[in-house]
């Protein structure tokens, strides 16, 4: 079982993990993910790989508490072991070298830009990272991204840090000619609504755009069909055909409806976990 080497609380509901996973780190590439399970009989959840260190044999993950399983993950600390971590899964991000690559991270999605920006900068691309959050307190990993990118743009809804407004507003300004200049490729990772907004922002100007889709997954290997997304009018599986797809081909309306299919079951799982926690505290 992979052992947790380090944890760090990034926001009240977002936690950084560095784990000992040499086999996964040896072959991980930007854009891939792992399937994680914390207890026998528990669900498997997909977590995007934030970073990897092949030499040290470690993997970095960032988890946000949104349901019962992610709450269980975020309760773990350094020295604890994770029951299952399977990967790397999914395809890597394939972008031709030599251009200006703009990575957009919404909320916890900013974590996935770590290995992306490092790899693209190292091969000689011009890189810009645009990070968005509702407020300064919810921004993550901006300091870590600065040495990995040529330019880091911070956006907050309330203006408490950086640009006041959405990442799409700042992206539109950059596409229109603001420094650091129009990107050749955009990669958006974060909440589905944010990725859809990015797709619409880049559609008119015809900027090539990828989005990292995070639909419901069961096994992460293409057998269950749970992560089906409609891309260009065809059914694709995010776990094996993605997770990154052409943003202008994704049917976000269908994807967002499918992600809400188990809202009641997710609430029941959270309620059960809360009851268990309260009983243990007595």
Key phrases:
about 280 residues, alpha/beta, Elongation Factor Tu (Ef-tu), domain 3, 2 domains, globular
Description:
By secondary structure, the protein is an alpha/beta fold. The protein has two domains: 4-89, Elongation Factor Tu (Ef-tu), domain 3; 100-212, Rossmann fold, CATH 3.40.50.80. It is 28% helix and 30% strand. It has nine helices and 15 strands. It has helices at 22-27, 68-74, 113-122, 142-145, 167-175, 192-203, 238-241, 252-259, 263-281, and strands spanning 4-11, 14-20, 33-37, 45-53, 58-64, 84-89, 100-106, 126-133, 151-156, 163-164, 185-189, 208-212, 228-231, 234-237, 244-246. The chain has a seven-stranded mixed beta sheet with strand order 10-9-8-7-11-12-15, with helices on both faces. A six-stranded antiparallel beta sheet has the order 1-2-5-4-3-6, with helices on both faces. Strands 13-14 form a two-stranded antiparallel ribbon. α6 links the parallel β11 (185-189) and β12. The longest helix has 19 residues, at 263-281. The mean pLDDT is 93.
């Amino acid at each position: 079982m992979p052992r947790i080497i380090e944890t760090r609380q990034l926001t009240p509901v977002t936690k950084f993990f560095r784990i000992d996973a040499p086999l996964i780190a040896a072959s991980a590439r930007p854009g891939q993910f792992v399937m994680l399970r914390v207890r026998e009989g528990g669900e498997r959840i997909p977590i995007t790989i934030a970073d990897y260190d092949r030499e040290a044999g470690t993997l970095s993950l960032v988890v946000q508490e949104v349901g019962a399983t992610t709450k269980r993950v975020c309760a773990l600390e350094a020295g604890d072991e994770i029951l299952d971590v399977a990967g790397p899964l999914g395809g890597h991000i394939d972008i031709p070298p030599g251009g200006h690559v703009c990575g957009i991270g919404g909320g916890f999605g900013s974590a996935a830009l770590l290995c992306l920006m490092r790899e693209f900068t190292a091969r000689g691309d011009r890189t810009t990272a645009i990070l968005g959050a509702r407020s300064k307190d919810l921004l993550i990993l901006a300091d870590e991204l600065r040495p990995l990118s040529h330019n880091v743009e911070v956006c907050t809804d309330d203006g408490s840090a950086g640009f006041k407004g959405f990442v799409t507003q700042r992206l539109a300004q950059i596409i229109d000619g603001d420094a650091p200049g129009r990107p050749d490729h955009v990669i958006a990772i974060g909440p589905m609504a944010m990725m859809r907004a990015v797709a619409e922002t880049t559609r008119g100007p015809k900027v090539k755009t990828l989005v990292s889709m995070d639909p419901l997954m069961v096994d992460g290997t293409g057998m269950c069909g749970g992560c089906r997304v409609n891309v260009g009018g065809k059914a694709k599986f995010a776990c094996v055909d993605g997770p990154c797809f052409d943003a202008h081909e994704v049917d976000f309306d269908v994807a967002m409806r499918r992600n809400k299919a188990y809202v009641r079951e997710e609430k029941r799982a959270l309620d059960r976990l809360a009851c268990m926690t309260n009983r243990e505290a007595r």
